[in-house]
């Protein structure tokens, strides 16, 4: 896959961030920046280095920054935040990182992140209040996390081939054996815990060893494949090879645009929400004002409009929904984003000991134990 094809797929909405990450890594394409300076910009400025998901470094997501500096900041990609965390712990130095709120406890515990001066965040007052009160945003009265993008995780299913109550139990339904696709992540531990009535973010060890593990083993026998990229999931859902799967908003958006009869469930146990954003990494040597200018550019309504229309995700700035195409917003079920967020169970930072227990169980399930 060529670099230009990767960029084309990003811009036309057919590539997901993890697919792009793997494709770029295989080509050795992990970093880029255009060395073009706008008139009047100090040539000696040290551009900050952004560590982000592939597909999120594109100019359309920070146009105000490019208007001021004539270029994007330097950037490098990761495939997942655990990989990024381990790399930074090992000494890889960046200025800005694009994690999600559930990553914040380990980032703080490792003393990797710095507090933000919200007086320098131009759009802070325009962010959805729930975005600023997410666990992982504030610590000891200071903001460490600047919310940018958010979305949902839920069950997607073929309405012409599935007849079931909208529930996380759909992911364990024996009637659809061989046509279910869980993700290759610990998310199904959360699903099993929710179905069984446990706190999905802190299931007790006896439940993990007993009923939760039993459900995951059962699911393993029902699963067609544990997907790792949304592109492979899209293709399998479109063909009918898979009829029930765990998915993000982007898969629903793309399949609907292709005319595939799918629905994005509101499980009775609750639809899940995630919130990602930008943080400052301690020790970065990039220009501090440029760091704040980039965060401001990402949190602008203009960037939000592109994110909503191009990626099918929500944006942290309320004004983004005022300028985005109403037809697109409606098709994504985002007409009332505050209601959707209020009725979503958002992921948040896990206690490191719980995270370790979840990861250990998932590795055992994947190994066939």
Features of the shown structure:
369 residues, alpha/beta, D-Maltodextrin-Binding Protein, domain 2, 2 domains, twelve-stranded mixed beta sheet, two-stranded antiparallel sheet, 16 helices, globular, disordered N terminus
Brief overview:
By secondary structure, this protein is α/β, with parallel strands linked by helices. It has helices at 3-12, 17-27, 63-69, 81-89, 104-109, 129-132, 187-196, 205-222, 230-239, 249-257, 288-298, 301-311, 320-323, 326-331, 337-342, 352-366, and strands at residues 31-32, 49-53, 74-78, 96-97, 113-114, 138-139, 142-143, 146-158, 180-181, 244-248, 262-264, 271-281, 314-315, 344-346. The protein is built from 16 helices and 14 strands.
Question: Secondary-structure map with pairings?
Answer:
Layout: H1 3-12, H2 17-27, E1 31-32, E2 49-53, H3 63-69, E3 74-78, H4 81-89, E4 96-97, H5 104-109, E5 113-114, H6 129-132, E6 138-139, E7 142-143, E8 146-158, E9 180-181, H7 187-196, H8 205-222, H9 230-239, E10 244-248, H10 249-257, E11 262-264, E12 271-281, H11 288-298, H12 301-311, E13 314-315, H13 320-323, H14 326-331, H15 337-342, E14 344-346, H16 352-366
Parallel strand pairs: 2-3, 2-4, 9-10, 12-14
Antiparallel strand pairs: 1-3, 4-12, 5-12, 6-7, 8-10, 8-11, 8-12, 8-13
Helix pairs in contact: 7-8, 8-16, 9-10
């Amino acid at each position: 896959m060529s670099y230009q094809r990767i960029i084309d797929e990003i811009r036309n909405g057919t590539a997901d961030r993890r697919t792009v990450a793997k494709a770029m890594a295989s080509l050795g394409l992990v970093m880029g920046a255009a060395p073009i300076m706008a008139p009047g910009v100090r040539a000696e400025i040290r551009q900050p280095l952004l560590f982000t998901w592939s597909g999120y470094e594109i100019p359309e997501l920070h146009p105000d920054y490019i208007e001021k500096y004539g270029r994007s900041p330097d950037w490098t990609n990761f495939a997942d935040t655990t990989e990024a965390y381990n790399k930074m712990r090992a000494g890889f130095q960046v200025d800005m990182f694009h994690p999600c709120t559930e990553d914040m406890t380990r980032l703080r515990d490792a003393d990797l992140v710095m507090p933000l001066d919200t007086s320098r965040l131009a759009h802070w007052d325009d962010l959805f209040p729930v975005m600023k009160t997410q666990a992982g945003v504030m610590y000891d009265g200071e903001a460490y996390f600047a919310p940018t993008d958010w979305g949902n995780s839920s069950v997607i299913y073929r309405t012409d081939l599935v007849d079931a109550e909208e529930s996380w139990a759909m992911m364990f339904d024996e009637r659809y054996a061989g046509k279910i696709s869980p993700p290759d992540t610990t998310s199904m531990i959360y699903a099993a815990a929710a179905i069984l009535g446990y706190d999905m973010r802190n299931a007790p060890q006896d439940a993990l060893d007993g009923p939760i593990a039993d459900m995951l083993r059962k699911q393993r026998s029902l699963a067609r494949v544990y997907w790792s990229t949304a592109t492979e999931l899209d293709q399998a859902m479109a063909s009918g090879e898979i009829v029930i799967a765990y998915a993000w908003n982007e898969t629903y958006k793309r399949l609907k645009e292709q005319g595939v009869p799918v629905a994005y469930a509101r499980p009775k146990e609750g639809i899940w929400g995630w919130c990602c954003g930008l943080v400052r990494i301690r020790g970065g040597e990039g220009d501090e004002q440029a760091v704040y200018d980039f965060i401001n550019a990402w949190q602008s309504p203009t960037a939000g409009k592109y994110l909503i229309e191009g990626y099918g995700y929500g944006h942290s700035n309320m004004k983004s929904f005022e300028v985005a195409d109403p037809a697109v917003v409606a098709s994504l079920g985002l007409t009332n984003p505050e209601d959707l967020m209020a009725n979503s169970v958002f992921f948040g930072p896990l206690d490191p000991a719980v995270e370790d227990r979840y990861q250990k169980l998932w590795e055992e399930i994947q190994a066939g134990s």
